[in-house]
């Protein structure tokens, strides 16, 4: 998002946090559902997106237009949050759509946080991403934009049945829809990071040839927390192809101490002689 859009989003996000602190988890989840339904509407209706982000209209005018259309169709809480969002300045209609969708996702995460389940939801999202990445056939089935959305959603429901919390399933559904314009796997990764961020944590993606012990993972997490000045959520991937050592990615930082990397460096050096 550009600066104006980021500021408008922040105002609505702060309002969401204040609302979520005083509401029951189920109420916050219901509000999230309403907000995401409006995001789906905006995705289908480009003219409406333009009208609700039109800089020639005042913020109150845009909020009034939203109220005329949606009052009585979504909850008062959802309408209040959305009115706060559309009354801000948006650099482009597409950024308003991104803001509405992000607000709905953050509301889902807030409801999980209120219920004391956010850490588990974060882990379930990551594990599901691992399952998908480990199966090219499954990855293709879920990522194929030509496949009917209902068919892909049914497949997700079957895979997650009795294995994940309802909010995890809802978030995976948002990833199927291309949350934030991303690919399915990219959207899942972003959702993991948003869940961690709401818990005030950084995500460290760790690749190893064999699983780390609980103590090794704890020590690695503690060391990374010291480096980044923030609690770190370690997400471990086992890949025998790396042969040994550890690769760690935190944001754009990559620390690759794997045997495979050293072998490749040696091979490249020999090839240059």
Automatic annotation (TrEMBL):
It holds the Pfam family OSCP. Keywords: ATP synthesis, Cell membrane, CF(1), Hydrogen ion transport, Ion transport, Membrane, Transport. It is found in: Cell membrane; Membrane. GO terms for molecular function: proton-transporting ATP synthase activity, rotational mechanism. GO terms for cellular component: plasma membrane; proton-transporting ATP synthase complex. Signal peptide: none annotated. It is a peripheral membrane protein. Gene3D superfamilies: N-terminal domain of the delta subunit of the F1F0-ATP synthase (1.10.520.20). Belongs to the ATPase delta chain family. This is ATP synthase subunit delta. It comes from Micromonospora chersina. The lineage of its organism: Bacteria, Bacillati, Actinomycetota, Actinomycetes, Micromonosporales. The gene is atpH.
């Amino acid at each position: 998002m550009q600066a104006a859009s980021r500021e408008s989003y922040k105002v609505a996000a702060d309002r969401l946090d204040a609302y979520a602190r005083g509401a029951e988890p189920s109420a916050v989840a219901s509000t999230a559902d309403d907000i995401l339904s409006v995001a789906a509407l905006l995705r289908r209706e480009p003219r409406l997106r333009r009208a609700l982000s039109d800089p020639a209209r005042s913020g109150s005018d845009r909020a009034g237009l939203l109220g005329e259309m949606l009052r009585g169709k979504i909850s008062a809480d959802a309408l209040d949050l959305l009115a706060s969002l559309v009354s801000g300045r948006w650099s482009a209609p597409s950024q308003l759509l991104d803001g509405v969708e992000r607000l709905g996702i953050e509301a889902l995460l807030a409801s999980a946080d209120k219920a004391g389940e956010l850490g588990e939801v974060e882990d379930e999202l990551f594990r599901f991403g691992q399952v998908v990445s480990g199966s090219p056939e499954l990855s293709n089935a879920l990522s194929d934009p030509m496949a009917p959305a209902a068919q892909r959603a049914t497949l997700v429901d079957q895979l997650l049945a009795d294995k994940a919390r309802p909010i995890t399933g809802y978030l995976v559904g948002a990833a199927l829809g291309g949350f934030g314009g991303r690919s399915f796997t990219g959207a899942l990764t972003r959702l993991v990071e948003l869940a961690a961020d709401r818990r005030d944590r950084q995500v460290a993606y760790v690749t190893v040839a064999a699983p780390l012990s609980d103590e090794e993972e704890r020590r690695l997490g503690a060391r990374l927390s010291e480096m980044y000045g923030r609690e770190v959520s370690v997400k471990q991937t086992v890949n025998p192809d790396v042969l040994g050592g550890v690769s760690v990615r935190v944001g754009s930082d990559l620390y690759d101490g794997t045997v495979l990397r050293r072998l490749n460096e040696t091979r490249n050096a020999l090839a240059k002689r």
